[in-house]
Design goal:
The chain has 242 residues and is mostly helical. It contains eight helices and no strands.
Amino acid sequence: MTKIPKKRGQLSLEEEKYIRDNFGNLSLEEIALHLNRNTTPIKKYIEKADIQDSDTQKITDQLRLKLHAKNFWPEIKKQFDSDSGELKYFEDVWVNLVKQFREDVLPAEELQIKQFITIDILINRSMKERKRHISDKENLQEEVDREYKLPEDQRDTAKLTNLETALSFARNSIANYTNEYTKLLGEQQKISKDLKATREQRIKRIEDGKSSWVGLIRMLEDEELREKQGKEMEILKMATAK
């Protein structure tokens, strides 16, 4: 019997739909068998498309609803644009971070996470603007170079002046956005460090509490043992005297 070779290349739209519809109900191997493919491209598509099984999706939806119930959520909606994807980005990062912390997040830590994501979005904005100004600078530089290639008596002096002014502005803007990125990144790293330190202190207090509790239990057990031994000695003395 001739073995049918497994399909290669990019997944078709029908294959992608089958994966989305059956992930969580079928195993990766079962999906691969049905599509006559190796598991590698299927796994890559699941990770790239962020497809989640029903249980994981349920947790994600619950965390998203909890976020929407926070007192600061109305302000977040005012601060970030849904059309540009910033609002969804905030939600996705929030959910992933809370999952990473196993949903054990105190109100003070929530504010730190909020600040962390806010700065992350500001960094994204800054880098997009920086990229735009880099593109503007390159286009302006090409125009300036073209103008200077002309004979001197054919050059448009006024145009050259405007181009060089715009070019200088673009260069300064790139430098400013680079500085802004560095500053924001430093603030984000500080929040990340503070958040990590806060959680480590919490864990340490919990562990210390466990140790203290265990120590207390042992101490009480030792006290009960001493009391029991004392009673036995008293009974032995009374028996001897009798």
